[in-house]
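User: Hello! I'm new to structural biology and keep hearing that structure can be predicted from sequence alone. Could you demonstrate with Helix-turn-helix transcriptional regulator? Please show me the input and the output so I can see what each looks like.

Assistant: Of course. The first part below is the input, the amino acid sequence of Helix-turn-helix transcriptional regulator. The second part is the output, the predicted structure written as tokens.
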Amino acid sequence: MGAMAAVKYAELGAFLRSRRERIRPADVGLPTGPRRRVPGLRREEVAQLAGASVDYYNELERGAGSQPSEQMIAALARALRLSADERDYLYRLAERPVPVQGGAASHVHPGMLDLLGRLTSTPAQVITDLHVTLVQNPLAVALVGDQSGFRGPRASFVHRWFTEPDTRRLHPEADHESQSRAFVADLRAAAARRDAKDPEVGSMIRTLLGVSPEFAALWADHDVAFRRDDRKRIVHPTLGVIEVNCLNLFSEDGRQRLLWFTPAVGTDSAGLLDLLGVVGTQDVGEASVSSPTRTGGRSPRRGE
């Protein structure tokens, strides 16, 4: 490690410690406890929230150890409720490129994370306008699988929907056409809201036009509509078909949305959703999905 890198890593450790000490356990959904002798969070609590080992996080705070990955930095930024400027500073201290907004490592606003943490009895997740999953609560993982580990173009559920047939097992076959149409209309709305020269959305559209005749045909219809609310059927490997309402809270710039699922009225979905916490996550053997680098001990993904 060079002298300059050593100085930066020492500053990185000091910065992490300062951010850890300012957060109350209740801010991140942890019990305060009667014997807390340190201000803010304990090191092991930050490690747990970020999906890292305690030893690894201790090394980071000491300014030692290996260079943290971009995925780890994103996880730490969320665990410590960093602002956008603080998140960018952390990336630079770790000598990693600051990710563009909209990708799998996008910064999630602390307020949106706080809302997600308060939704303990309903499945919820934060996704981007291109349907990249940024963070999920445990019930969302139990309902639709862990989607947070995909990288590159595959990070977008819309990309996987039109390029990986197994992804569609999440919904009954009778619903596939309507889902495809809704995804394309939502993507067109997102593309219009972004800058015309945005490379991420432009690359995604060009790729899908080239590899998916279905996408190309729907894109030619020029339908445009954000998915503000929706009613859909989700196929769970243990509980069967669960019919839910999907509600969205959009960020100010429209690039992120907090998505949560509630039981559809007139169905038995309320009881099925109650069972999610008991059933937990399920592996349906998605053989076509490779295992990306993980930052935590989550179970295999299924879809969105």
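User: So the tokens describe the shape?

Assistant: Right, they're a compact way of writing down the 3D structure. Reading them back into a model, for example: DSSP finds 13 helices and five strands in the chain.
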